[in-house]
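Schema walk-through. Below, the input block comes first and the output block second. Nothing else is stored per chain. Lengths vary across the set, and this one has 136 residues.
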Amino acid sequence: MKYLLIGLFFSPLWLFGQESQIRTVISDQIDCWNKGNLECYMEGYWKSDQLMFIGKSGVTYGWEATLTKYQKSYPNQAAMGALSLNVLEIYPLSDDYWHVVGRWALDRDAGDLQGHFSLIFRKINGNWLIVVDHSS
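--- output ---
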């Protein structure tokens, strides 16, 4: 009984710690994007050929291919604009996987863009990384 009570007390703290780490990854990505640094932005993604990015033109597999796609779509700071992300839902799927749903917006001189995203984060080697990104 004592261990059950201890577990019930620490579970919310553990969940809050995981959520906080994931939110930090997202915040760091926003900072990198708004500095015009796509390579830095991509540090939030799993550097693997198994990374999956799903967008309006279909599925892109791999970290390098995703970076290349971003570089083609956003060749400079003006094209990138200012990114804001609003997390609507964040919850664990398991100890090592979390799901994040939210809205994204780009404020740009060339015209603002906005949409929604769904991210799957996985804890890999102690770091939370995006392994699936569906943005539309």
